[in-house]
């Protein structure tokens, strides 16, 4: 569950966040909860404002800059990554939504869920898979910064970074000690994107991903309690736990359905499409160097994010339906007055899901996203082949 599996990873993630001053909260060891940090609030707000301006500057340069088509596709990967991080990191600042949801999970597990059941779910396949995925992403965050600086060292004018926006920018490698302006601009690029990705990782990895898997663990606990009703003939505790999980789901979806899941769904798909397209069709146009690895890295991680995140999110819907069927079946098998009362209460219960906008994630969502992405990649590759044949 959350406090056992994801909280230790989140606490370690806050170490580089404190170095960047990119999140306005910290973990209080006494209360075992996340608390607001007033000293970092203004710094985080300033960074968010800078990241939005940075993304708009990238977009303007890609649309109106005098660069080749290859450079535009190449720069679109970095623009979408910057835009995704800029949008999602606002959740950390607006009304402290991120820490409120995380604290709600921690309080729910302390009061409504038996913590001694946690061992079973720590070792479940879904929980372990999500844990390793988050650890992989934690490793990729600093790796992305390293590859970015390598890319800028070998090709200083890589669009759409700040140096490429200068009309006097040259592609030849110049010693950094002789080019102070270039050095400062590269550091600014690194600082902005590094702050963005470390801050945006919290609502995506530790709220969306960690929260969805935690719901599955809670449903497994509830299924075990439903089986115990064969002896106790009492469904009231199970119904009460389901309602408690449903209240948690409302709080969970309140910040994700408009501010996190829509940009994650659209922009990770875009990153996957453009990243793999650039690596497949334009790799010959980009000089070979270690920074080139950044394109397959973001493309493959885009696939992993889309498949894993939304597959696990769809399990929330299917698992809640299974729990409701189990509750209604158990209530139907009982012939007591309490069973009739429980049946009346069960009619008011609805399924739970991970919502985005006015829709929700079901079993067909991950397949639809991947079908769309693969069709777009294939179409772009075919258009590129036709364009080369015409020339």
UniProtKB/TrEMBL annotation:
Top-level division of the source organism's lineage: Eukaryota
TM regions (residue ranges): 46-67, 132-155, 197-219, 260-280, 292-318
Keywords: Membrane, Transmembrane, Transmembrane helix
Name assigned to this protein: Gustatory receptor
Record organism: Folsomia candida
